[in-house]
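call fold(seq) -> tokens
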Amino acid sequence: YLVTPDRFRENLDKIRTWAQALGRDPARIEPALHLFISLGPTREAGRALAIEELSRRSNQPFDSIVDRYCAMGTPGDCATTVARFLQAGVRHVTFVPLCPEARLAEDVERLAREVVPAVRSPESRPSSTD
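ret:
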């Protein structure tokens, strides 16, 4: 976690190269990401909440780095960020909602309803016969 899409891609390439050099099958590696996500009515509101929550949880300021490491803003903003990671090779995402506890259930529902479907690949969608 706390990685940009470009850094994820670079690191995944290194890991696959090392795996192959050690006689392991690089295709068996399941690229995953632990991603902080902060939903809001605007990108700015999601960003402010991400800064507040991460700074509180980590006891250090996050305002100068939050843009690189979090999906934040509207569901569309968040889906765009997630899509960048998927393009970098991520195949599994663990979402970590950044919100007050009282809003957690609502944010998880919005994430499942509005963000995840926007980034699922056509191959992963159930067919009409499923």
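The two ends are 34 Å apart (CA to CA).
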